[in-house]
Amino acid sequence: MREAKKRAAAGQKVYFSVNNFLPASMNNVYFEGVGHSRELHYLFNGILGLPMVPLVGDEAAAQKTYSDLFVTFAKTGIPSSGALTVPRLTSPSAIPNIQIYPSSYIQQDLWKDRTDFWDSIAATYGYDLPEQRKLF
């Protein structure tokens, strides 16, 4: 997330999406929540050894959001789906994003509690663990 903030500060266009929807058929006994790259299922069903999930109901709604975001970003450079347009990251203090669910929504500040925690640790000890560097 810090890299994204730096890229945005350098003038690059940065957008965030967070996949929080996990179809029941994709549950994993080894970890809770959505696994890395699970959003690829919505674009390319049945790849990477992922189970085939029928794209109906809630799964179809999430798939439509992902495909809309992908296509509108490719066409216009701005990801959107229906009435939702993903805000561009422009502030060094907040990360607007789209939360992917069957009823997706825009969130204004991604994981603020987590970034505040790591920033406070870095300020207290003079070492930024996520970036692995001394601050002073």
TrEMBL record:
* Gene3D superfamilies, A to Z: alpha/beta hydrolase
| Family matches, as InterPro entries | AB_hydrolase_fold (IPR029058)
Q: What is this protein called?
A: Carboxylesterase type B domain-containing protein
Q: Which organism is it from?
A: Panagrolaimus davidi
